[in-house]
Q: What sequence folds into this?
RNA sequence: GGCCCUAUCGUCUAAAGGCUAGGACGUGGCCCUCUCAAGGCCAAAAUACGGGUUCGAAACCCGUUAGGGCUACCA
């Protein structure tokens, strides 16, 4: 495909050395704004950056874009870093990991942005604007009412130098805006979308430096990406329309352009941009629900990318090995939880027993059974019995509470179907037969039940189902004899007797 | 409204102009079976529409339609 070859050309040019994909010059970044929890879309962007960097032996940088003081949320940055760490998306440079390109928090780089804004003013590529917010609001309203394109009317673009100096001396509020050419167009290459072209006339004279002295995203991202040596800007598609402004800024500064790759958006089931109010979007939410990081990473990686073969369960190492921007698709992907559940099941199954055990113990500690002690050996048998039935670690408890506590109720539907008038008498005989067993194994329970069935001239299943109900209170679960082994002879008999009295 | 992006089963996707459009989740059925699962087998299910280009189009071009994104002194 044309797109693919374009990508290779772009890539090898950037590598500076043909046919040499391993290049330490590759530097990418994830640049979230610390306004809350890490969004799953954000995690995917971070992941693709990370995979791209690792695949090519480059560096992955975390940069905090906190240039909007109003939206600042206390602790959000720490949370972001912790969640990234939990997910295994490790950055090489970041606020707490200096790589010589810091600081990695934009609010600590204000002087740099001011200097660069001043440079553009001096070059005639930007200008001071003294328009009041009220005037701009009014302007937008009028444009909107007249169905005109909404943009700044460039009121201050051609103020005389003397006028500017006078207004500045008066100490009025001012911003610095970029001077967009009135004609022509910006054309740039996107690694995922190919050539993108936008006419200059539809571009706004974007504010670069706000009146509070902070830069806007557009200035900060260009300045930082340049000074941090970013080779590939891999970010969400929502940035595609403002990329021409960034391209223009690179030109104004005389800097080399990085490669751009705009990722397709993650979507709600109704295909709108993934958002709150249509389900969980914070990575934290999924973590709290018991999803494994392996499943989340695997799932998110496949939303917009695939390895090109028919594998669908991949580890982080395999993702690193297989990942390429060439195989990233162009259209948005719906985040559908059913497949995530299946992947969680798959990844949980792949975990060694010992690891599941420690996760189970951790979960138990926060459960209603926290006060009770269950030894490891006991829990291990439960894990063995429940593996094929557990999608989440908590299923080892919630789908089989009877392993932790005698049933206090019996599922009415199952009672109706399996518990006949003659059942209590049969259970009594069965309990007596069990009581004669010594250190019974699975087979011993089985043959004991078989003997009772023969004696009573009934089918084994006429005993099996009521017995399952008696010991578990449920109609579904592991093989009956597996349950009995876990419970042990005494507990089994106790539960049979209890059920004889209580099931009705 | 303007600009930009996108369009293959319900969902995630494969097919780089040439097989019967392949796989996965989910759904339904069958097998296995003491239940529920797991596993196995089978099935239903898609190239948005209309024009071109071509011997040949899901693929390339144009248009239409639909969806989405952006349109701030937010990022």
A:
């Amino acid at each position: 495909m044309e797109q693919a070859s374009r990508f290779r050309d772009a890539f090898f040019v950037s590598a500076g050395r043909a046919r040499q994909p391993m290049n330490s010059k590759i530097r990418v970044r994830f640049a979230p704004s610390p306004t809350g929890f890490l969004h799953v879309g954000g995690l995917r962007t971070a992941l693709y950056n990370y995979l791209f960097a690792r695949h090519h032996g480059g560096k992955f940088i975390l940069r905090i874009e906190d240039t909007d003081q109003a939206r600042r949320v206390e602790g959000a940055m720490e949370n972001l870093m912790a969640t990234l760490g939990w997910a295994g998306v490790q950055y090489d440079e970041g606020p707490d990991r200096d790589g010589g390109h810091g600081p990695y928090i934009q609010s600590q780089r204000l002087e740099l942005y001011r200097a660069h804004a001043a440079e553009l003013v001096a070059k005639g590529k930007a200008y001071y604007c003294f328009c009041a917010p009220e005037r701009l609001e009014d302007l937008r309203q009028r444009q909107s009412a007249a169905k005109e394109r909404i943009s700044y009317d460039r009121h201050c673009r051609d103020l005389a130098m003397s006028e500017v100096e006078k207004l500045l001396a008066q100490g009025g509020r001012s911003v610095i805006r970029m001077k967009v050419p009135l004609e022509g167009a910006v054309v740039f290459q996107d690694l995922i979308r190919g050539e993108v072209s936008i006419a200059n006339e539809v571009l706004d004279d974007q504010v670069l430096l706000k009146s509070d002295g902070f830069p806007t995203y557009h200035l900060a991202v260009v300045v930082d990406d340049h000074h941090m040596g970013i080779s590939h800007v891999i970010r969400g598609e929502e940035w595609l329309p403002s990329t021409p402004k960034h391209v223009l800024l690179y030109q104004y500064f005389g800097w080399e352009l990085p490669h751009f790759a705009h990722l397709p958006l993650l979507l709600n089931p109704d295909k709108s941009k993934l958002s709150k109010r249509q389900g969980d979007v914070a990575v934290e939410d999924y973590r709290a629900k018991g999803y494994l990081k392996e499943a989340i990473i695997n799932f998110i990686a496949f939303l917009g990318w695939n390895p090109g073969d028919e594998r669908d369960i991949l580890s982080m190492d395999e993702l690193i090995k297989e990942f390429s921007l060439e195989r990233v698709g162009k259209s948005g992907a719906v985040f559908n939880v059913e497949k995530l559940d299946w992947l969680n099941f798959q990844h949980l199954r792949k975990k060694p027993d010992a690891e599941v055990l420690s996760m189970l113990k951790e979960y138990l500690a926060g459960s209603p059974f926290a006060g009770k002690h269950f030894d490891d050996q006991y829990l291990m048998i439960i894990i063995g019995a429940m593996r094929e039935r557990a999608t989440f670690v908590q299923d080892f408890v919630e789908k089989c509470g009877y392993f932790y506590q005698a049933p206090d109720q019996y599922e009415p539907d199952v009672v109706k179907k399996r518990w006949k008038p003659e059942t209590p008498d049969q259970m009594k005989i069965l309990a007596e037969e069990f009581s004669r067993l010594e250190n019974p194994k699975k087979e011993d329970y089985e043959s004991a039940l078989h003997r009772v069935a023969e004696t009573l001239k009934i089918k084994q299943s006429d005993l099996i189902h009521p017995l399952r109900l008696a010991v578990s209170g449920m109609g579904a679960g592991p093989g009956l004899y597996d349950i009995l082994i876990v419970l042990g002879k005494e507990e089994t008999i106790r539960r049979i007797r209890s059920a004889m009295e209580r099931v009705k």
Observations:
- Confidence is low (pLDDT under 50) at residues 1-22 of chain A.
- Residues 2-94+217-267 of chain A form a domain with the Rossmann fold fold (CATH 3.40.50.620).
- Chain A has five domains: 2-94+217-267, 110-209, 283-348, 351-400, 412-502.
- The first strand of chain A starts at residue 27 and ends at 30.
